[in-house]
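Researcher: Next sequence.
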Amino acid sequence: MARSKRYYIPKQIWHITHRCHKQEFLLKFAKDKYRWLHWLYVAKKKYGTTILNYTITSNHIHLLVMDDKDRMTIPKTIQLIAGRCAQEYNIRKKRKGAFWEDRYHATAVQSGRHLLRCLVYIDLNMVRAGVLEHPKLWDFSGYNEIQKPKRKYILINHDKLIELTGCGSLNSLTELHRDLVEKFIKEENYKRQTRWTQSVAVGDKDFVVDIKKKLGFRADGRNIVSNNDEYTLREDQAPYNALFGVKKAGIEVKNSHFWI
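Model: Next structure:
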């Protein structure tokens, strides 16, 4: 059977969420989280993936990336990480069956203030879950790497993050990033926000309208919803089957998130 056509919007920032099969806690052990980070680093070296932030929880991951390479860079990155992590876990546990949900979800995020909000939303994942009081206490996220860039095994592309947020310098980025996290924690403004994980796009009105226009007929029935100065293009009720039209299978490039 021929592969379904990929619908692709280049040069976008994507917030990717990928959940463990049936939301099982298959990433609950530190060793498995570290292996996910290892394979993320391998994927970055192999494909040149532009990573902006990440968080690993016990049953899902968040990955913020910029699509500025080949159109297959991000699907291949997810394929490599998901495949290797699942293989290692199943061998170690003498387990069979799916490790991940069939497909990951990707939301297009506008640069500037919307990117900063998404960045902080990802950072506060474990605070939101009630596991800890501050993201600096979580070893499996990009918060500390943004605040104190590493010299080795660097995952986050700080130069690209500075450019896309419009901060101008690393000092400005780390200060604004830190202040926003502190502000959201103080105001307890870290509840789950489905626009970052269940929508097609988040940004200002022009950005979201443009994404909808580029989707063409595939955007039929999708509503643009405003929330103060932020707009979202909502996902439909059956996003994967309706938009991507692919048969369910294991994690492979052919049935990972199909570029819009």
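Model: The CA atoms of residues 86 and 99 lie 5 Å apart. Residues 1-6, 237-260 have pLDDT under 50 and may be disordered.
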